[in-house]
Amino acid sequence: MAQNVPTDRRNIISGIIIVVFVAIIVRLFYIQVIDSRYKLSASNNVLRYITQYPARGLVYDRNGELLVSNKAAYDLMIIPRQVSPFDTTELCNVLSISKETLIASIREARIYSTFKPSILVKQLSSETYAVLQEKLYKYTGLYVQPRTLRSYPRKIAGHILGYVGEVDERTIKKHPYYQLGDYIGTSGLERSYEDELKGKKGVNVYLVDVHNRIKGNYSNGNFDTLATLGNDLTCTIDAKLQEYGEKLMVNKIGGIVAIEPKTGEVLAVISSPSYDPDLLVGRVRSANFRLLDSDTLKPLFNRAIMALYPPGSTFKIVNALIGLHEGVVRPETRYSCDGGYRVGRGVGCHHHPSPLNLIGSVQASCNTYYCNVFRNIIDNKKHGGVEGGFSNWKSHVESFGFGHRLNIDQPNELSGTVPSISFYDRYFRKGGWSSLTIISLSIGQGELGTTPLQMANLTASIANKGHYFTPHLVREVIGTDKNASRFKEPIYTTIDSTWFKYIADGMDLAVNGLPGSGSTARIAAIPGITVCGKTGTAQNPHGNDHSVFIAYAPKENPKIAIAVYVENAGFGATWAAPIASLMIEKYLTDSIARPWMEQRLLDANLLNRRAKKN
Amino acid sequence: MQRRINILRNLDWTTIFLYLALVFMGWLNIYAAVYSEEHNSIFDVSQRYGSQLIWILAALVIASVILLVDSRFYFVFANYIYVALLLLLVSVLIFGVEVNASKSWFHIGSIRIQPAEFAKFATALALAKYMSSYGFKLFRFSSLSTIAFITLLPAGLILLQNDTGSALVYTSFIFILYREGLPHWVMLFLAFFIVLFIFVLVFNKFVLLVILFGITMLLFALLSQKYRDSIRFSLGVLGLGAILYGASEFFNLNISLYYLLLIPLVIAIPIALIYAYLNKIRLVLFLLFFLLSTLTFSFSVDYIFHNVLERHHRERIMDLLGIESDPLGYGYNVNQSKIAIGSGGLMGKGYLQGTQTKYNFVPEQSTDFIFCTVGEEWGFLGSSVVIIVFVVFLLRLIRIAERQKEAFARIYGYGVVSVFTFHTMVNIGMTIGVFPVIGIPLPFFSYGGSSLWAFTILLFIFLKFDSSRRD
Prior knowledge:
CATH superfamily of the largest domain in chain A: DD-peptidase/beta-lactamase superfamily
CATH architecture of the largest domain in chain A: 3-Layer(aba) Sandwich
Strand order of the largest sheet of chain B: 1-2-3
Shape of chain A: elongated
Largest sheet of chain A: 6 strands, mixed
Oligomer: heterodimer
Number of strands of chain A: 20
Radius of gyration of chain A: 32 Å
Number of domains of chain B: 2
Largest interface: A-B, 43 and 52 residues
Distance between the termini of chain B: 15 Å
Strand content of chain A: 15-25%
Distance between the termini of chain A: 103 Å
Number of domains of chain A: 2
Number of strands of chain B: 3
Helix content of chain B: over 70%
CATH topology of the largest domain in chain A: Beta-lactamase
């Protein structure tokens, strides 16, 4: 058959090939000879691509106060191939750098590429730029590239706002949008909302003649693109509360998170020691970063979402709720306490009235009561043995947001730890542990690790009587209809909502109980506002106990839920509770009626309490 | 000794000369594209032109080895070679390295091998073997489906590697089928659907419907010679549309133009069928089938385009058709490439004098966009010479294919022609903005060992067949 195929097939195929390539040649003729758009007027002329860097989006607080803004800066760029010899001394004087530095940077640029622009001197101020601009014609191959830098009008919330840094090689490879020398959000909101904040780069193509003069737009700007500004953010932070919290935490180590329970909006995130975010901007950035990074108190570390602490006695309310829900304890159940739980290794308790019912046990924070409750939960016959009881307990605990990330819109959130059955099987041996061996969990000690954020979220869940909203820091990306629906969906705990009122009453009494009734946190009471709170004193392997306090207020219509950790500061009631109390007062009344308490906190220096005294 | 002399005498030296010319020009252009003053020796192996020289030398060794092997070997082992390449394509999916978002490379030490390049000659061999087998008839369902299977299997695996460009190369094998007897109308139909595809994307639904309706009525008028009936029918449909429009305006129904035409058309279909039955005109049925199938096609194109294609493909096609433009985004490569080529002018800027390719404004300038360097430095004249050399090369291959006595060699030869034509056409086409950027190399020009070796193997197996045809 093959031989019979007429030769026209061959001719048609040849014809198609010829037609296609003639068409391509015609098109080439059009582009190269006829269309003048692509011509460069003289062979010495080159195109210069000046990137238009968009200003990053601004960040406002919940009341519209500016938290992050931009200021202008100028990069001096070099294209080594185009450089002709010039007076280095004069340039050095203008830039106030040494000749050696200049020569070294030129060499570095040459090594990178002789054709591509590199940055010769970073981030010149407007003043330097004004002087330099006059003389720029003397330096062929050098030009100035406008940039913007971050600036922080209120100098607060450095940890959560984050900072921008130069993009690294790996990111460039992955996301070709970025080029060497571009900035990218490397931590905090700058990183989580990089896509929204960054905007879109544009480019202007200019014709430049041999005298380094811009002759005008290339091809009437046909190849130019406009830069698009980044989107602004409204975050959920209350700047006043944030600032006040940072002030109270000066000379203390720890973290505070405050949440609006109804929405999951985070009102304040304080990690102490903190730093002035302006330190990490511009030419001073790398020096300051090194300084902050080597500080033994780790100011760059965001304790509020990245530090694991034992929850301490605040965790008793979780056990109380699980006990109530499982029916192993009733609100009227009483256990007597003679200063400790005497089974096994035993757990000590402090002095308080006895016996107590459930509300009283929250009010007075009785250890013995919770040893009993916890053992009832774990040894509950319904679940057939320790392992069943324990995994039931664990799933309840996790429903409060413990043991996993809450997925706040911040990078590097820690997931926290809730121990697992296999952990205990490894630690002891299979079948070698019981409710008694893990009794420390009853009072929030042992193998539990929680972040201040998770504790604040627990408080919000209690304020909401059984559900929470994913805590988040951004309410709105301005100019887009993008609002993350995941922040709007309530997440329910596994505890029936009817049980929460007993906890609320207990936390109310802990703050507002009569003197001598065993209330642990009377210092946190605010006249005119019903604060519900729970103290904690978290034993930890790093030294003195951490002072912990969680609270929400007002009781009937909660507007703020807060968790305070002060590292190695001792009793929850001594330091954490007054701090929480002042912050609640500040947020709800915008004033402070207890200056003596405020003064005591401002004066306190708790930095050197790490070593255990006894 | 006798045999070797035979090989040398029977070799088609014209093709080999063209091959060497293309490879040499390619090397010069890679040097120009990567050229910098620090590394100005063309033999510097730390630079791309240096390593390309090594690839070229290795390619010549490979070519010699291919010529020394008995030509029956390729016939006998065609299927094994094919299966072996398929296995490589599968394993690269598992063990491969991701480069530019496509997982199609093996890393062996410092060398990177791309199996997709080599799969082309293997597929051509397997196709040739199957189609030249005893008693093969093209027009059988089993034959066509086997051909589709042989071609689409490697293409599918390459698609999985996210290397759409290399997968599309396999569509070029349609030329083999055409040469072996696929009817003309199939080719015309394909061409028509490609045009329709572009129409769907360029025009909105309403205009497309008008065009299709117009073509149908025109065909009817021309083919049946019933001008009066066709005018009546068109006026009827348009009149119904006008009445609907009036009703829609009067009752404020806001029916879109598209439906104002579609509804009368749907109503007209049974009338057309009755008309066809009464007058015994089968042409009407054919035209109805044409109208419905093109409409269905346009819907599915629309659907595939917006729901199946990935965003960057969509954007490249949109950019090419001039529907959207974003010179710094997806259109960046093409724009830079056009500036570079356009700035070359008639005579070019002279060898190593290009500014656009030098300043790295053109991405991938030594691989997929190597033709920019040609265009910028050698101008229109130089580019035309390069294109003409390619065309002469392709026509020469067709001539060699036609002089084969064995169907196997001829079919393989057309496979070679198809692959080279597709690569050259699409690669040059994308640098000047007439094809979407799908990132396939220009044969013998683009930097890279894998592609050079694969093209060399593809070509020299064919030359081996040719040299032993009188054996």
